[in-house]
Specification:
The protein contains twelve helices and two strands; from the N terminus they run ααααβαβααααααα. α6 runs antiparallel to α7. The longest helix has 32 residues. It is elongated and about 75 Å long. By secondary structure, the chain is an all-alpha fold. It has a two-stranded antiparallel ribbon.
């Protein structure tokens, strides 16, 4: 009886040993198939050049130039990720990997606005130490990049509410309405501009040109009437109108000495009344 139990125990030990050995061999095979070749990642070619960046920013490129730009960028991103494949399994390479990730992110900032699927959130895909490994290692590769679409209708749906019919800046508005229009103009231009990517090569070019003309009109109006212009005071702190603050909208900088004295007295009275009512509310 004891002999039979010993045989069963010995067989189970041998089986566990074989399973452990097979697991080790399988892991070694996976790593070998996804060999880390980090030292060759710097040899990958295809980063956007300065001239290509300027061409994209100018919005004066052809469809062929755009496809070439995206395909070249995609080839670079794929190359780097192939060379870095599973390098995250080697802890001693963490510092070098961080540097490569920063470089990929910088490239994504240049490609993302024009090339779909090449934004900063999805250009880093070399890692094996992840729960989604199966999806990253079996994903089929495409030889062509897709382009970020021109979305004129979406610009209307998501951005028009900022101006809400107040297209033209009115000098007759009160101080609050003027300040609100300036904030809304900045929000509108930033919102609408993001949907005008690649419109010069689509069948919506005529509509895109009309929208761009309207954006230009709002931009010029903001530059004339708003402190800091279309960038606002946070990005244009040297604008003298920003230093004037609310006094710019009150018009104090254009007043005569007597008028300025009157405005100052009125502002002082307003501040005193606010302080007085605040104290009453606190006591209540």
């Amino acid at each position: 009886m004891e002999t039979n139990i010993y045989k069963v125990y010995k067989n189970s030990q041998n089986l566990n040993g074989r399973l452990l050995l097979n697991t080790i061999l399988l892991n070694a095979l996976i790593i070998s198939l996804n060999a880390c070749d980090i030292w060759k990642a710097s040899e990958c070619q295809g980063q956007p050049s300065k001239a290509e960046e300027e061409l994209m920013k100018s919005d004066d490129y052809t469809k062929e130039e755009l496809y070439a730009y995206c395909d070249k960028g995609k080839a670079y991103v794929d190359c780097v990720n192939d060379k870095l494949k599973c390098c995250d399994l080697k802890l001693e390479l963490r510092g070098s990997l961080k540097a490569h990730e920063k470089q990929l992110t910088k490239v994504a900032w240049k490609l993302g606005p024009y090339c779909a699927g090449l934004g900063a959130s999805n250009v880093i895909r070399y890692k094996c130490r992840t729960t989604t490994r199966a999806t990253t290692t079996t994903e089929p590769k495409s030889t062509k990049s897709t382009l970020a679409p021109c979305q004129i209708e979406k610009a209307g749906e998501e951005c028009t509410h900022y101006l809400d019919g107040r297209v033209v800046f009115e000098e007759s508005w009160n101080v609050y309405d003027k300040m609100e229009w300036c904030r809304d103009a900045i929000d509108y231009v930033n919102c609408a501009t993001q949907f005008l990517i690649n419109c010069n090569i689509s069948n919506l070019k005529e509509d895109a040109d009309q929208l761009q003309s309207f954006i230009d009109f709002v931009t010029k109006s903001a530059n004339v009437h708003c402190p800091g212009g279309i960038k606002g005071c946070e990005d244009n702190v040297n604008d003298v109108r920003c230093k004037l603050g609310i006094r710019y909208f009150v018009g104090e900088y254009n007043l005569s000495g007597c008028e300025r004295h009157f405005v100052n007295r009125m502002l002082l009275i307003v501040y005193i009344l606010i302080y007085f009512f605040q104290n009453i509310l606190i006591q209540i």
